[in-house]
Design brief:
Number of strands of chain A: 10
Number of helices of chain B: 16
Largest interface: A-B, 48 and 39 residues
Radius of gyration of chain A: 19 Å
Distance between the termini of chain B: 22 Å
Strand order of the largest sheet of chain B: 1-2
Number of domains of chain A: 2
Order of helices and strands of chain B: HHHHHHHEEHHHHHHHHH
CATH topology of the largest domain in chain A: Rossmann fold
CATH topology of chain B: ABC transporter involved in vitamin B12 uptake, BtuC
CATH architecture of the largest domain in chain A: 3-Layer(aba) Sandwich
Radius of gyration of chain B: 21 Å
Largest sheet of chain B: 2 strands, antiparallel
Structural class of chain A: alpha/beta
Order of helices and strands of chain A: EEEHEEHEHHHHEHEHEEHHH
Strand order of the largest sheet of chain A: 6-7-8-3-9-10
Number of domains of chain B: 1
CATH architecture of chain B: Orthogonal Bundle
Number of helices of chain A: 11
Helix content of chain B: over 70%
Shape of chain A: globular
Oligomer: heterodimer
CATH superfamily of the largest domain in chain A: P-loop containing nucleotide triphosphate hydrolases
Largest sheet of chain A: 6 strands, mixed
CATH class of chain B: Mainly Alpha
Helix content of chain A: 25-40%
CATH class of the largest domain in chain A: Alpha Beta
């Protein structure tokens, strides 16, 4: 599905991501964990095309997307959320989501001028898609509220819906459960499970270990830009290198 | 009570009332000068709508807007005065010129983001001013352009009279707002808003940043060119001062006061401020003593301008009135809000 080979990104003399190779399977929940500054977000930015890799390859279903611009990668089916999502605060939730389907539409300036059939059809499709995505994340009851008036958890769900409206095959989630309470975290885990059950592939960055350990099918651990471990939650949990990276090699902790 | 009035303003009929008022205004005006001031306000409003596309919707602060206004005016002026074109071909020429120059300036300047873009366009605006002032062989330099052709009315109307010209400008204003309304509701308008929300998010939604930003920029410079050409046709004498950076900042003020990123905002802001400035004319330079604090208060208490703050207030009010039926009610309100925006 998503195959990364020897991926490296240098910022000046600093290797933010250093020679990382990994494969993420279709229909699975893949987690990326690691201490702050380990290069997790940079790794996401490389896959989604926001940053160009210094070297290495990224293959999406066999297609080389290594040097593809972000918008083309998105059109190939890579959706993503960010740690913070800036939305149009004084517009309704639904209005904010309609643009999510834009990449599957063709209408341009001329269609706007003559109000073409195509534009009308595509606008309806985009609206329906937005409603469908909103329904999927369980927020159809707040479709008409302003973004400024909804809760933090709802905002996070809206960000999910926006990514889903692009009709992705794989979704990159950057700390989806940051800043929400434990009950809500359970809700997000259920939502991710539901996404996978609907045929999506998930990659997520997360610091909440309880959630990761019960949710992920596969975990990759990054530290200082390098992959230090990879495997099932059980394997990663018992890996001494991982414990050292997290707890700083203290003997008591490693024991 | 207040809500009822507000609700009435949201009705599609408001648009008709506004147009009707604009149509009868020359008969209500005390003298020809007032009609002239209103026509000037309309011209500026057209330019402000252009600024609203690139800055209000697409989120890129373009400080060369006054420069493109001047290019529109000069293209029309020079083509008619020096090259013997008649008004309407030169008018089309002005639109094409501002669109083409907008394209080339756009593909260079839009590579820069946020304040770097603003600073770059500030420089572009100043370069336009310098070219108009110093390139005497082409632009006549500080003397300016005289003998600009008047718009001919195909034997039907005489646009050298103030009132017919007022109607001409009004027609273009209605056209400009009509297109703006269609644009804002369309997927293209939503694309611009997504870019305003953030480059990275927009890109990850599959939006080609450069293509859409350049399109918004070209649309905005064409609006500026349209306004500039009408201006040249009205005053029939122009100088390098048309490209003065103050014009750009005036337009930004109109936009902020009226409501940035809204449909009615540019119109309300421009007409409101032009008339306030006119009525404070007797104070001469001291009018800024009144004008300044007024702006400060407005920006503090109505950060989204008159229209933006009004729409937000309406939305909240309607939601708090129907707590039981929150969901259905909120849907109705968004439909209304959208409608009001459309009809503005």
């Amino acid at each position: 599905m998503l195959k990364v080979e020897h991926l490296t990104k240098m910022f000046g003399g600093l290797a933010a991501v250093n020679d990382v190779s990994v494969e993420f399977e279709m229909g699975k929940i893949n987690a990326i964990i690691g201490p702050n500054g380990a290069g997790k977000s940079t790794f996401f930015n490389l896959i989604s095309g926001l940053h160009r890799p210094t070297s290495g390859n990224i293959l999406l279903n066999g297609v080389d997307v290594t040097h593809m611009p972000c918008d083309k990668v998105a059109r190939l089916g890579v959706g993503r959320t960010f740690q913070t999502t800036n939305l149009f605060e004084q517009a309704s939730v639904l209005d904010n989501l309609i643009v999510g389907h834009r990449l599957r539409t063709q209408s341009g300036l001329w269609d706007v001028l003559i109000n073409s059939k195509r534009l009308q059809r595509e606008e309806k499709a985009a609206r329906d898609k937005a409603m469908e995505a909103l329904d999927f994340v369980g927020l159809s009851h707040i479709a008409g509220q302003f973004i400024a008036d909804i809760t933090q958890e709802e905002r996070k769900r809206v960000a999910f819906a926006l990514a889903l409206a692009t009709d992705p095959k794989i979704v990159l989630l950057d700390e989806p459960a940051a800043g929400v309470n434990p009950d809500e975290t359970v809700g997000f885990a259920a939502l991710m499970r539901k996404m996978v059950d609907n045929g999506l592939t998930i990659c997520l960055i997360e610091h909440k270990m309880d959630m990761i350990m019960s949710l992920a099918d596969k975990i990759m651990v990054l530290d200082h830009g390098e992959k230090i471990a990879e495997g099932t939650p059980e394997e990663v949990r018992n890996n001494p290198v991982v414990i050292q990276a997290y707890l700083g090699g203290d003997e008591d902790a490693a024991a | 009570m207040l809500l009822k009035i507000a609700d009435l303003l949201m009705k599609p009929g408001t648009k008709m009332v506004m147009i009707a008022f604009a149509l009868v205004f020359p008969f209500l005006a005390a003298n020809e000068y007032q009609v002239y001031v209103m026509a000037t306000a309309f011209i500026w409003a057209i330019a402000v709508y252009g600024l609203n596309i690139i800055t209000g919707y697409c989120g890129q602060l373009n400080l060369a807007h006054g420069g493109f206004f001047a290019i529109g005016a000069y293209t029309l002026g020079l083509l008619t005065a020096d090259y013997g074109w008649s008004f309407w071909p030169a008018f089309v020429g002005a639109l094409v010129m501002t669109a083409v120059l907008g394209f080339f300036v756009g593909i260079v300047s839009l590579r820069l983001k946020e304040h770097y873009f603003a600073i770059f366009t500030l420089c572009v605006g100043f370069i336009i001013y310098l070219l108009l002032d110093k390139w005497e062989e082409l632009t006549h330099g500080p003397i300016g352009v005289r003998d600009i052709a008047e718009p001919y009315g195909f034997g039907l109307v005489d646009f050298t009279e103030t009132t017919p010209f007022y109607y001409l400008v009004l027609a273009f204003l209605v056209l400009a707002i009509w297109f703006m309304g269609k644009l804002s509701r369309s997927l293209l308008g939503r694309t611009f808003i997504a870019i305003r929300n953030g480059d990275e998010l927009a890109q990850s939604l599959g939006i080609n940043l450069m293509r859409n930003k350049v399109l918004a920029f070209v649309l905005s410079t064409t609006y500026a060119g349209l306004a500039g050409a009408l201006y040249a046709g009205m005053v029939r004498f122009i100088g390098p001062e048309e490209a003065n950076i103050n014009h750009t900042f005036d337009m930004i003020t109109y936009l902020l006061v009226g409501g940035i990123g809204t449909i009615t905002g540019p119109l309300l802001g421009t007409i409101g401020i032009v008339w306030i400035t006119q009525s404070l004319q007797f104070l001469e330079e001291y009018r800024m003593i009144i004008f300044g604090p007024m702006l400060v208060i407005l920006v503090i208490f109505f950060p989204r301008g008159i229209t933006g703050s009004f729409l937000t207030w309406m939305h909240r009010k309607a939601q708090s009135l129907a707590p039981g039926k929150k969901h259905t009610k909120s849907k109705v309100v968004t439909a209304k809000t959208r409608e009001a925006e459309n009809n503005a």
